[in-house]
Amino acid sequence: MFSIFVTLNVKSEYLEEFTNASFGDAQGSVRDESGCFRFDINQDVEIPTRFYLYEVYRDENAFQAHLETPHFKEWISIVKPMFDGETEKVTMKTVFPSDDGWEAQKPSLLNW
What we know:
- The chain has helices at residues 15-32, 60-66, 70-79, 99-105, and strands at 2-9, 36-43, 50-57, 88-93.
- It has 112 residues and is an alpha+beta fold.
- The chain has one domain (2-110): Alpha-Beta Plaits, CATH 3.30.70.100.
- The longest helix has 18 residues, at 15-32.
């Protein structure tokens, strides 16, 4: 599996608006994209304007397809002006769970 870890900072006046806008992209990703197996949004407790996104896709093609989805395009158009500085992205290969393990967990992603 292909995964990414994104670190981004949000201007303090947009914290609630950013969080609310991000739900649509995360939910749309796990609900509507068969190749998306995880989409976590985390907020730093010591630096509340810093967010971390952890996403897992079947492969890099599934991630590239994600970037073309309506929910991603809507999200990025809303939140990009809220960013404070550049985002950082690390690409990775998952080790655990196994690919079959990720596949088996997919149905449970809709239990928000």
